[in-house]
Amino acid sequence: YVILKCDEWSIHFRDFRQPLWQMQQFNLWGHICAAEVTPDSLDSIRTPWVEIGEPYEPNRFRVQRLLSPLKFYHDINSDIDSFLISYGPAKTIVLARQYN
Question: Domain of life of the organism in this record (predicted)?
Answer without folding.
Answer: Eukaryota
